[in-house]
Amino acid sequence: MPLVPLLRPSTAASLPVHQAIRQRRSRRGFYDRPMTLQEFSDLMFLSVGETDHRDRSWPFRAFPSSGALFPTETYIGVRAVQGIEPGTYHYQPGRHALALVRRGDHTGPLKRAALEQEMVANAGAVIVLTSLFDRAAFKYKDRAYRYSLIEAGHIGQNLYLTAEALRLGCCGIGAFFDDDVNDLVGVDGLTEATVYMLVVGHSTHEAVSRAS
């Protein structure tokens, strides 16, 4: 699959964490301003990237994972990010790069899969988190499903706070037709299935804040 390398993380997300937490809201309104490649690169690295390589055989990521097994995979429906063609991509944390899954803007089908929520079609990107349950099940058995959902929640909060620190908007979505989203990102819904969706981009709240 063709790879799209992302940029090295910057210090653009300089909002203190206590301020990001206090300001964090679900932003459902987006306007048609593309995210820069740096904004998007920072968002991905600080939310799901590999942040610690002291042990080269066991790198750690930006979120906690039971047993450091990392069953979560990240897919992105890109609509408006400078330097990245619209398409569906798979984020590869070890390379900090995107692997192309399908070309073209698929935010329309994702919107329909998300019960016609308008923010899905207007956001710069739609983040789809899936879980490979067997990655955790061999160790945690029946608890693997719980731990996979907890992990997706950790990532969701990372995305919210990083977006806030970058002056972007983010909103989590739990209402979607599982089979439709699974088909769009190319997973079977059994061994790997969608558990969470989030939208990110430049929010109308940001535009109002800058104007006021």
- Structural class by SSE content: alpha+beta
Give the helix tally: 8
Largest sheet, described in full? 7 strands, antiparallel
The portion of residues forming beta strands comes to 15-25%
Mean pLDDT: 90
The helix fraction, in percent, is: 25-40%
Short characterization:
This protein is of the alpha+beta class and 212 residues long. It has eight helices and nine strands. The strands form two sheets. It has a seven-stranded antiparallel sheet, sandwiched between helices.
Please explain how this structure is put together.
The structure is a single chain. The chain is built from eight helices and nine strands. It has helices at residues 17-23, 37-48, 107-113, 118-122, 134-140, 144-165, 178-185, 204-211, and strands at 3-5, 50-52, 60-61, 72-78, 87-92, 97-103, 125-132, 169-173, 192-201. The strands form two sheets. The protein has a seven-stranded antiparallel beta sheet, sandwiched between helices. A two-stranded antiparallel sheet has the order 2-3. Helix 1 (17-23) crosses helix 6 and helix 5 (134-140) crosses helix 6 (144-165).
List its salient traits.
212 residues, alpha+beta, 7-stranded antiparallel β-sheet, two-stranded antiparallel ribbon, 9 strands, globular
SSE map:
Blueprint: E1 3-5, H1 17-23, H2 37-48, E2 50-52, E3 60-61, E4 72-78, E5 87-92, E6 97-103, H3 107-113, H4 118-122, E7 125-132, H5 134-140, H6 144-165, E8 169-173, H7 178-185, E9 192-201, H8 204-211
Antiparallel strand pairs: 1-6, 2-3, 4-5, 4-7, 5-6, 7-9, 8-9
